[in-house]
Amino acid sequence: MEGNQNRIQSIDAIRGFALLGILVVNVLAFHSPHFMYGGIDSFYQSATDSALLTFIGVLFQASFYPLFALLFGVGIYIMYERLTEKVNDQAKSVLRRRMFVLAAIGLAHGVFIWYGDILLTYSIVGLLTIWLIQKPVRSLLKWAAWMLGSVTAFMTLMNYAARDFLANYRDEEAIAQSFALYTGTYADIFDRNIADWLVMFNPLQVILMILTILPMFLVGIVLVKLGWVTNPKQHISNIRKWIWITLIIFIVFKVGPYLMGDPVWLDYIKQGIGGSFSSLFYFLILLVTFSYGRGMFIQSILAPVGKLSLTNYLLQSLIAFVFFYGVGFNFYGQLNIIDLMAYVVIVYSVQVVLSIWYLKVFQYGPFEWVYRTLTYGKVQRLKRRS
């Protein structure tokens, strides 16, 4: 029982780490429209901004949504195994219901709060994952490699053909509308958010996201099937080998493009290959670190945040909504990178403190409680037993 509890703490801690990385990246998208419509140089002009953007690009950008997807795959398979023991043939039905509940939460988040929601996409990918969940390790790895390789190759060729357009892309009209509406009333914000959400969730974009994220779900399942997640010490030689392999691929495909001047047509290689392997590197290095009892203080800080991952993810959006948009403090487009990183430190620190305090009284976060209650069709006990 003790080993299982340690394993859960380790996965929760990695999930908490992923939420920190997601906050770093998302705050840039909340602050200005450059991710959607170009013109990043006009928002961040100092040498310090440029250096920090490179730092974020290498270590954070496109690394943490894949990491969260990998963790999602780990969680789905562990839940599938437990449900199979309890309800056997109903396991997949419960998982499907779980994905539909997540889809509803993600849809509400994306439409009413922030167009950059990832939960709806995860729910779609989760449904596809359930279809593949019983396939053997070799088959899952073939599916993952084929999807990630094909979409990366296709998009890189397309981006290379359009490299001159992409290098100078800047939609002035959309940028102006973003500033006009995100700094206005909630009705203004809602109108602009819907427009951006429809861009983010157009059919082509959804297909590309699925082909990028589903491989990481499958890798998460593979890691559980191989026993690396449940008993990392037994597989330490293989894990250490893959830590080095993923680190090398991380450096080549994530750092390499910056040494070439960071041409925009290499973005999909940076994100698809570099981002996926950097996320796997982060997962494996932290799994080994926590499993061997190192970094226990860091684990104790990160694990509560990770255990309340759904609530903390949505809370990050709600805080940013108030901080950056016109209904609140209206800092949209007004800050530099140092200011934004200070914001990240403050928000995440508050989440750490609140998560530790909250879990002393309750066993689930408020959104986790809703998620579980609707999944199982039975009101879950929220408070811890005395």
List the defining traits of the structure above:
single chain, 386 residues, mainly alpha, 18 helices, 78% helix, 0% strand, globular, disordered N terminus, transmembrane
Encode the helix/strand succession as letters. Answer: HHHHHHHHHHHHHHHHHH
Give the fraction of residues assigned to helices.
Answer: over 70%
What is the CA-based Rg, rounded?
21 Å
Number of strands: 0
How many independent structural domains?
1
Tell me what portion of residues adopts beta-strand conformation. Answer: under 5%
Principal-axis shape = globular
Sheet with the most strands, sense and barrel status: none
**Which structural class do you get from the secondary structure elements?**
mainly alpha
Average pLDDT value? 94
- Detail the poorly predicted runs: 1-7
The end-to-end distance, rounded to whole angstroms, is 20 Å
Helix tally? 18
Mind explaining what this structure looks like?
The chain is an all-alpha fold and 386 residues long. The protein has one domain (2-376). The protein is built from 18 helices and no strands. It has helices at 2-31, 34-37, 40-43, 47-59, 64-87, 91-112, 119-132, 137-161, 163-167, 172-182, 186-200, 203-225, 236-259, 267-291, 296-307, 309-324, 337-359, 366-376. The longest helix has 30 residues, at 2-31. It is globular, with a radius of gyration of 21 Å. Mean pLDDT is 94; it is low at 1-7. The chain crosses the membrane at residues 12-31, 51-80, 100-131, 143-162, 206-230, 242-260, 272-293, 313-333, 340-359. InterPro entries: Bact_Transport_Assoc, DUF418. Residues 223-378 form the DUF418 domain.
